[in-house]
Specification:
FAD/NAD(P)-binding domain, seven-stranded mixed beta sheet, five-stranded parallel beta sheet, elongated, binds flavin-adenine dinucleotide, alpha/beta
């Protein structure tokens, strides 16, 4: 590895999006380094769905197969570790790792994903991805028609209730305090037999991440199998921001249709750039980023 410290491209993040970018670049005969700290956002979910050919596999099975396929290309090298710093150099960029290595490349791709911030509600983090779900397209089919709750309020709570009513008719909106719904929204929810519970929640009772009950602060409880909720998020890696990459108002890295960030030579792909968070989308964006980076190098050097 020491003799190979200069690369055409360094990809930071070696999950679905980073590996897809690595495959496209490796097949384009580029010398590539993938730096990965091994913490994908979906690691706690037992099964991943809605990615054609891999439906129902564990997240790890999909990632392992992807890595095996990229490892076949001798143009692609791997470094298991955390990138902690990035700087612009005369001919490109330098990336420093937490263990003191420095790698240089002409271009960078950030496929670093997002970090979901867990609610302080007791039981929430343990159930995340198992029975506290963020996405019906990923997990809704498996829990259709089960006793389902939505943790939310106001516009978001209303819209999410409408969406999830597609998957179950046994639905309750838990606003965890006074509802901020309009009278029209309340009427609409009631007309679809969606219950509204305003009592504040004390904790989620579960067995190994599988929800059993919601325990309220007034001592009451209700049985429940599934709770949909949106967690706030932050960028998993802050190096793009320190390099000057602009973020959108929502907190995603701003990219154009070629996955270019606002900093020349720096590309980004996958969850860190989009609210369409799916494995399929991360892979598609990674493939595009790899192709676009290669094209940029070709055009600059031809
Ligand atoms: C609970 C849950 C369940 C989900 N279920 C599904 C599902 O069933 N189907 C589906 O299609 N999608 C699902 N998703 C969405 C899917 O997991 C993501 O869209 C996908 O993982 C995004 O891939 P990515 O490569 O962009 O980011 P990630 O998979 O999050 O990977 C980012 C990688 O970058 C690495 N990294 C970050 N910073 C650094 C750094 N500084 N140095 C080195 N490495 C770094 C991380 O360690 C990680 O390995 C789910 C998401 C969650 C949270």
């Amino acid at each position: 590895m020491k003799s190979l410290r200069h690369f055409d491209v360094i990809i930071i993040g070696g999950s679905y999006s980073g590996l897809a970018a690595g495959m496209a670049l490796g097949r384009a005969l580029r010398q590539v380094l993938i730096v990965d700290s091994g913490k994908p956002c979906n690691e706690q979910t037992p099964h991943s769905h809605n990615f054609i050919t891999q439906d129902g596999k564990t997240p790890e099975e999909i990632a392992t197969l992807a890595k095996q396929q990229v490892e076949k290309y001798d143009t692609v090298k791997f470094f298991n570790g955390l990138a902690i710093h990035g700087t612009k150099t005369e001919n490109g960029f330098a990336i420093q790792t937490a263990t003191g290595e420095t790698f240089r490349a002409k271009k960078l791709i950030f496929a670093t994903g997002l970090r979901d911030i867990m609610s302080h509600l007791a039981g929430y983090a343990e159930c995340w991805g198992i029975s506290v779900l963020h996405c019906p397209y990923c997990h809704g089919y498996e829990v259709s028609n089960e006793k389902t709750g939505i943790l939310g309020n106001g516009e978001y709570g209303f819209e999410f209730s409408a969406l999830i009513s597609n998957w179950t008719k046994d639905l309750t909106l838990f606003t965890n305090g006074i509802a901020t719904l309009t009278p029209q929204q309340v009427q609409k929810l009631e007309s679809h037999a969606i219950k509204i519970v305003e009592t504040e929640i004390e904790r989620l009772e579960h067995t190994q991440g599988h929800l059993q009950k919601i325990i309220f602060k007034d001592g009451s409880k209700t049985a429940i199998n599934v709770l949909y909720a949106q967690s706030p998020f932050e960028q998993h890696c802050t190096i793009p921001e320190t390099l000057g990459c602009e973020l959108t108002e929502e907190g995603y890295i701003k990219v154009d249709s070629a996955q270019k960030t606002t900093v020349p030579g720096v590309f980004a792909c996958g969850d860190n750039t989009t609210r369409m968070r799916t494995v399929a989308n991360a892979v598609a964006m990674g493939t595009a980023a790899g192709m676009m980076v290669n094209k940029e190098i070709v055009l600059q050097e031809f």
